[in-house]
Amino acid sequence: MSRLTHLDEQGRASMVDVSEKAVTSREAVASARVRMQPETLKLIAEGGHKKGDVLAVARIAGIQAAKRTHELIPLCHPLLLTGIRVELSVNEDECCIDIEAGCRVSGQTGVEMEALTAASVAALTLYDMCKAVDRGMVIESVQLLEKQGGKSGHWRREEQE
């Protein structure tokens, strides 16, 4: 197993020096899910929430969060992202909102944390906007789905049944 990269030679937390790494195209995709009561899902899907378009607000929150990941996650490099997408879809069969976030950069380090942060903050925003009608919502399955680029190349989560 390789050593953790955010520890220096003395075992202290430190930001990784990426100055020697090549600039490459890098992409990452992450997801999250917010489970809720059927009535809450219907309220969101029909746009009937008194706070407005909950899905649009959560999408913008996810985009903003990706751009500020370095301010939220200690030792995370600030990146000039070249693309961010956050998609939210109503899943009536499983009574949830599925979130997928993708981030892109040309740089010396990956964007996995940015994609994970975008998906997480979009989920938290859904919870915040709907907690008055459904405190029992559950945020789950925040996970990296895929990453491309950089020294480690391409990785994709295998489907789980």
Automatic annotation (TrEMBL):
<dbReference type="InterPro" id="IPR023045">
    <property type="entry name" value="MoaC"/>
</dbReference>
<comment type="pathway">
    <text>Cofactor biosynthesis; molybdopterin biosynthesis.</text>
</comment>
<dbReference type="Pfam" id="PF01967">
    <property type="entry name" value="MoaC"/>
</dbReference>
<keyword id="KW-0501">Molybdenum cofactor biosynthesis</keyword>
<dbReference type="InterPro" id="IPR002820">
    <property type="entry name" value="Mopterin_CF_biosynth-C_dom"/>
</dbReference>
<feature type="active site">
    <location>
        <position position="128"/>
    </location>
</feature>
<feature type="binding site">
    <location>
        <begin position="113"/>
        <end position="114"/>
    </location>
    <ligand>
        <name>substrate</name>
    </ligand>
</feature>
<dbReference type="GO" id="GO:0006777">
    <property type="term" value="P:Mo-molybdopterin cofactor biosynthetic process"/>
</dbReference>
<dbReference type="InterPro" id="IPR047594">
    <property type="entry name" value="MoaC_bact/euk"/>
</dbReference>
<dbReference type="InterPro" id="IPR050105">
    <property type="entry name" value="MoCo_biosynth_MoaA/MoaC"/>
</dbReference>
<feature type="binding site">
    <location>
        <begin position="75"/>
        <end position="77"/>
    </location>
    <ligand>
        <name>substrate</name>
    </ligand>
</feature>
<keyword id="KW-0456">Lyase</keyword>
<dbReference type="GO" id="GO:0061799">
    <property type="term" value="F:cyclic pyranopterin monophosphate synthase activity"/>
</dbReference>
<feature type="domain" description="Molybdopterin cofactor biosynthesis C (MoaC)">
    <location>
        <begin position="15"/>
        <end position="150"/>
    </location>
</feature>
<comment type="subunit">
    <text>Homohexamer; trimer of dimers.</text>
</comment>
<comment type="similarity">
    <text>Belongs to the MoaC family.</text>
</comment>
<protein>
    <recommendedName>
        <fullName>Cyclic pyranopterin monophosphate synthase</fullName>
        <ecNumber>4.6.1.17</ecNumber>
    </recommendedName>
</protein>
<dbReference type="InterPro" id="IPR036522">
    <property type="entry name" value="MoaC_sf"/>
</dbReference>
<comment type="function">
    <text>Catalyzes the conversion of (8S)-3',8-cyclo-7,8-dihydroguanosine 5'-triphosphate to cyclic pyranopterin monophosphate (cPMP).</text>
</comment>
